[in-house]
Amino acid sequence: MSETTFHPAVIEMKGADVCALRDGALTVVAAVNWTVAPGEFWVVAGQQHSGKSDLLMLAAGLMTPARGSARVFGCDPEALGEAQIAERLRVGFVFAGGQLFNQLSVQENVALPLRYQKNLSAAEAGRVADVLLEMLELTPFAHVHPANLAVNWRQRAALARALILKPELLLLDNPLARLGGRHRAWLLQFLDELGRGQAWFGGRPMTMIASTDDLRPWHDEGKKQFAVLREKNFAVVGSWNAVRASGDHAVKELLGEPPGPTL
Question: Which of 6, 49, 160, 244 is deepest in the core (most CB within 10 A)?
Fold first, then answer.
């Protein structure tokens, strides 16, 4: 008899109320029940101001729920302090807009987590960063400052910074927003490679969650799982086939389709 290996959930929320980052008294998503297993790729869709960013912050362990529980790699984010820094480094986050430091070059931005967390010298961190910059086609912009970059390349640099510590969980807040068609296609393909297991990251499938306000670019016949936010509720839809078959008004809007007739 073969032995079954138990893999604990990467994220587990039970009855979790998500508050707005800017107003802790405001609940933006209520009673979330959600489990993300290792290697899964989730797309969470919702209209603007539906709470997508706040939900991702909770999923990353950067916020705590107002009610219920939310655990990341089995840990309560509220209990994570300096002694548990290794657990925090298992998570990478790509913020909407990139949130890069304009006083630093692209290479310096990407290398910064290595210098801060691994205590590497500028030269050592730069050498590691250069490998990732080449992988993400950013080498020509290594010494350019973010303010002088088009948004397409700034977003790619933010992705590189989130990946430099080789996280096990990657969260991306509306990563396709404002990207041109070529960059959108590149990012979707690159994320699919991470989901299958990319050699530089140890070959393991990376667990990923991306938010979006448009489901159409994320169409996928394979491993992606989909959920939607509507009226403070979090609802799992399932596979892309389930998305296409859904008669839910919110899902149809996020697919750019007119809702069905009201009965």
Answer: 160
Instruction: Please report the pLDDT score of residue 189 as a whole number.
Output: 95
Residue range(s) in the chain whose domain bears CATH number 3.40.50.300: 1-90+169-257
pTM above threshold 0.90: yes
DSSP string covering the chain: -PPPPP---SEEEEEEEEEETTEEEEEEEEEEEEEE-TT-EEEEE--TTSSHHHHHHHHTTSS--SEEEEEETTB-GGG--GGGHHHHTTEEEE-TT----TTS-HHHHHHHHHHHHS---HHHHHHHHHHHHHHTT-GGGTTS-GGGS-HHHHHHHHHHHHHTT--SEEEESSTTTT--HHHHHHHHHHHHHHHH--GGGTTPPPEEEEEES--GGG--SSSEEEEEEETTEEEEEESHHHHHH---HHHHHHTT-PPPPP-
Q: Which residues of the chain have pLDDT under 50?
A: 1-4, 83, 262-263
